[in-house]
Task: structure prediction
Amino acid sequence: MLNRLPQRTQVLLLLFLLLAGPALWLQQRQPAAAPPMPVEAQSFSSQAGAIHLQQVAGGLDHPWSLAFLPDGRMLVSERPGRLRMVTPEGVVGPGIAGLPAVAANGQGGLLDVVLAPDYARTSVVYFSYSEPRDGGNGTAVARARLERDGLGGRLRELQVVFRQQPAIDSNKHFGSRLAWAGDGSLFISLGDRGSERDRAQTLDNDLGKVVRIQPDGRVPADNPFVGQAGARPEIWSYGHRNLQGAAINPRSGELWTHEHGPQGGDELNIPRAGRNYGWPVITYGREYSGLKVGDGLKAQAGMEQPIHYWVPSIAPSGMAFYTSERIPAWQGSLFVASLKFGQLARLSLDGDRVVAEERLLEGLNRRLRDVRQGPDGALYLLTDDAEGSILRLTLGKAGGA
Result:
């Protein structure tokens, strides 16, 4: 048959077989990649004892945040723009209707979800998302009443209570964690949008800021920049890069946050009213090229130092203070999820100081997007993947403490 082809075609075909043939043969004989090892089959330990890790639910598309309902069910946001209900046994619902349009590109999508403090009476939930707008997109926060129907349901009476200003044409650094203060106000962490990092130092915008609002979106009268010309009144603190962790310290009642640095320099901060946290003027990180950021400063008068930082970066995401009596050795610890190393950092605290850090789940090799303390005293983790999971972490044997 080969002899019937034109001579030029014969030469090209022979060259292809000589060059590509061995590679094709090897590819055919290459064994299929082994599936990821089930978490239950892996062994992990901590200073407090053996860790038991089990998968509660799977099949979630890049889950971003988790909130526990009063009956133990979980609300889980998926970055592409879905909100699902999951039972404690791991049954995943079909999705909740009524969400607004979401700009699900890059780091954007449906992000944090929290219950209103009076959820038991109102059934109201709050969530953050990247909102498509004229001129680009921006972080927005909305609230709605959750009307449940089995494992599904619908969001009713939706109201946008905050929109980051201005809109930016970017798919990076949305921030987006939500935390309720003890006085009922809501903290929102906001990224610098990547391309606009210098504006984290100016007060005429919401880029690279922590803002504080009332539940209906009004600005609290005691915010630090209320009445200051040229400053947005919702701003609480500024000089941040991309804050993806926020939680209220149950001991002090203060907001704690962490943010991604560039190459190195992830920070843990206690954002206080009106303070400047330095980005991009000071940082313990470097540009991704390896060059210094700006003048390479790590400190400057009038700018706050982090209470803890990571070099190299761990790419921190969700975080939670552990308060349960289920694991006494961990009471008072701060847990920080890591995207880069797929680990869980446990920080031991003495007041506002970090006195020790323990890295848990080494070898898990899954991007950890969120960590929450469950009503049963276990820790619940989300893995950031197209086939993402909810994992439950305890000490000792399965189901034990």
